[in-house]
Design brief:
2 domains; globular
């Protein structure tokens, strides 16, 4: 395993080219994100390898767009509540917020719905399911955006080939256009630009999940010590614990 500082193309390419051409030619597939620097490195050092855009990076963009819609509604709800409190105070009255059936105020509903939007409905708890009904009834645009996220997730989960995935993505694009969400149109354009490497996922269904998990462990381990001074000893401890 090799560890490089940063993502600059030249120093990483220089180090990787020290590996024999024969060994680099043996690499058949590389899973990466959509950063151009990573694509350039893979192309220069492993020209025979198929590049696969990690599905979770694509889904993450859609989830961020969904959460952005929720957050905008939450800030608006906070503003409305603040204005209502001021009006109540000026009239020497006690402000009583509207409560939904889960005993949530509007801003609490939006705050507490964060995690259910990351999940598939089949993984919701009873409370999350009940809260989702209220949320989607109050905010149809969140329901629509959630449907787009789930639609994209289902393509990755269910498509059996690149051809089927291509067709399903075309239908998903139409839904995005009909939704009118600017952020989702940006995601659709990003997918279009990277569609070849995204469709390559459906060859072997490879992901960066294990690498991302290991990276999370490293960050958590590092945060325990509030940084690292002796890098050599830090790497030694990593290999001792996780290798």
């Amino acid at each position: 395993m090799a560890i490089f500082a940063g993502t600059k193309v030249e120093p990483i390419v220089k180090q990787l080219l020290t590996i024999s051409a024969k060994k680099r030619a043996a690499v058949k597939e590389i899973t990466l994100d959509m950063a151009n620097s990573m694509k350039t490195i893979a192309k220069k050092c492993f020209p025979k390898a198929i590049q696969v855009t990690d599905r979770f990076h694509v889904q993450k963009l859609a989830l961020e767009a969904l959460q952005d819609i929720r957050i905008k509604h939450r800030w608006h709800a906070i503003d409305l509540e603040n204005d209502a409190i001021k009006i109540a105070k000026s009239a020497n009255k006690t402000y009583k917020p509207q409560l939904f059936s889960k005993e949530d105020t509007r801003k609490q509903l939006l705050a507490r719905s964060r995690y259910l939007l990351y999940k598939s409905p089949s993984n919701w708890t009873k409370n999350q399911y009940e809260r989702s009904i209220i949320l989607f009834n109050e905010y149809p645009d969140i329901k629509t955006a959630f449907g787009l996220v789930q639609g994209l997730r289902n393509i990755f989960n269910s498509a059996k080939s690149r051809e089927i995935a291509y067709t399903k993505l075309a239908h998903w694009y139409k839904e995005v256009e009909q939704s009118g969400f600017r952020a989702f149109r940006t995601i659709a354009n990003t997918i279009t630009i990277n569609y070849r490497s995204i469709l390559n996922y459906f060859i072997n269904r490879s992901t960066n999940a294990s690498a991302e998990s290991f990276n999370a462990k490293i960050k958590a381990f590092r945060s325990q010590f509030r940084g690292v001074k002796n890098i050599e000893f830090f790497l030694y401890r990593l290999t001792t614990i996780f290798a």
